[in-house]
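User: What would this chain look like folded?
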Amino acid sequence: MEPIIRKGAKNAPGNRDLFLPRKSRRHFFLEGCLMARERRKRTRVKFRFEALVAVDNQSVRVQSRNLSLKGMLCNTDKIFQEGQVCRVILNLTQEEAEPVRAVILGRIIRSVPSETAIDFNLMDAESFFHLKRIVEYHSQEPERITRELLTAAFSPNLDG
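Assistant: Here's the prediction, encoded as structure tokens.
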């Protein structure tokens, strides 16, 4: 597929180089597709596991696709409503007597058939420790996870 070149661009139509807009623009074109610039501030890792997502006192089993310190993308048969508050429970052991769990409060930010994205908002220190260890273990650059913690993962809303 040919790159899209805007009329009057420096790249002549015969030139196959990609025309990239100024850095201040949010989107750029790549091989005929509109691509969004990466805005994530946390590393995502591919990590498949079963978790529970509880919304309105109803728990649904989901299968994760990827995970970060800030959220999770998962496969599910249920379609959630965007903006719903949820509780994510990651069972980290198979033991029934004293299971190790990470319990995280989040919000559904996208839900389409078979796929749901959850933004993590609140967790206790133990859950954060477990989540951080999982992401570090599955990351190609574990030291990057620690460096990312030095910058805020979100913009604070001071309006309340």
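The first helix runs from residue 125 to 138. If you want, I can go into more detail on any region.
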